[in-house]
Amino acid sequence: MLKLEQVQKRRNTFLLDNISIELPEGYIMGLIGENGAGKTTLLQILAGLLSADKGEIRLNGISLAEEEVAVKQEIGTVLHGDMFELRDTLLRNGNRYGRFYRHYEESSLKECMAEFGLDGRRKYGRLSKGEKLKFAMAFALSHKPKLLLLDEPAANFDKEFRTLFVKVLRDYVADGENTVILSTHLTSDIDMLADYLLFIKGGRQLLYGDIESVRERYRMAAGEEYKLKLLKDRIIHMENGEFGSRALVHNTGKSFDSTLKVWEPSIEELMYFMEKCPGI
Description:
alpha/beta, Rossmann fold, 2 domains, about 30% helix
């Protein structure tokens, strides 16, 4: 289990504040929020690239602050930026950095590279951005981490590889022992893949929980503006359009006017309407 308790980090004027979650093994957590919300900062803290100012992080009961080397052994990362030697080949890079991980296997790296369409003889610096992310993922999987951190990788993948990417993630968590945190703007990936959701807005934790429980707290409602306004304090945010109005509302269990169209929000709708609400 990954457990965060009141994790805080200040970077210049930005404050990532009071992030607290418990994520069981065997699940994929979607991490969402607008640019600048703090998603990358949180992933860098979990990867050990930044230190939290306050709070505690534990992976399977082991404290990241107290036993950093042991915890990092269990974490694989796919982050942006050149994390490998530009002039070395992919295979040399894998072996160079793989020696720091006790479960690294060259054969596993070669297998992943072949599956991802990467030639181990190519130099890392000659790869496209998408290929660099594919290699980072291949390397991460080759040392068999318990926690895989993914920072917006899929937006740089072609359609064919995105299908494989989904399969790889599902296979990775299938044994119930591995966990994924996937930060993405592609909310369709969250709808398709994620079991849990963490929504950060302005450095604050806005929502956390399993997807179904989170969705159950809210409803989308559409219809005539005056009928929506009758929902009063249940309304989180409402928008008026040419063909009527729609709103994200709290699902309190109370009935809705029969003329309103009501449905469970998608992740995209949930994120859009909550981002638009200034009071949240």
